Amino acid sequence: MDEITPKALYLNRRQFLRAAGITSAAALLGACTTPAGTSAPSALANELTKKETALSFNNFYEFSLAKAGVAPAVGKFQTSPWTLEITGLVDKPTTFSMEQVKQKFSSTEHVYRMRCVEGWSMVLPWQGFSLADLLNEVSPKTQAKYVRFQTAALPDQMPGIGETNSFPWPYTEGLRLDEAMHKLTLLATGLYDEDISKQNGAPIRLVVPWKYGFKSIKSLIKIELTTEEPDTFWNLYAPNEYGFYANVNPAVDHPRWSQATELRIGEDQRRATLLFNGYEEVAPLYQGMDLKANF
User: Which CATH code for domain 47-286?
Assistant: First the structure.
């Protein structure tokens, strides 16, 4: 199972389980989100993170360094009108408005685990579409090998930027083109059946579930295809701690803490971290690579 769950199927499964007397979200997600050929992480359930938690526990340094400080700081952030530019090594460079994005690309529900490099995790129901659909629309050139992503940087609307001048703003991230084209790589425009909130990356963000959360860049304004590996925000700021690939790997510790286990937000028991966050279908992307050396 690739953990891409169309909303109708998700709701049908929910109705079926209720009819069978199985009413917990834990049981529902156990049925819907464990990849084929793998077991659930430890003996613990994959229960959806509570909506209020996901909306109030956020890393978004453009607004605040404090997780609980992000949501109260987004009030001035204007997400409409909004454009997303796709440029670089493509045959059809395009700038989409969000209205055009929503008209052109059909949104479905994708229930994904999210693992933060800090050692905590969530399970979130995104609404969005495959990044590959957007990239195919602009026709990557044969020379394109990487994809660079850029977040909005608006100091007058994002108070955290002015408080953290030492950071290499704007926030940027990158993927190899084959990673970007993988069916699990998502552009999310919604969360919990609503438009995605400002603190969660409105109006459109990247979600790459087998990588640590900092790779899933928020509030996208630009996507650029390149021949060379792009610089990324955290790799520029602390290259000894944050690599380009950042695949979830329990065998590779952060220099300041272990990555062998994680704490699911809302629980009090740590669970074992899974290679690729449990999304084993991405393993062929890294065949022949030393996963410890290529963090």
Answer: 3.90.420.10
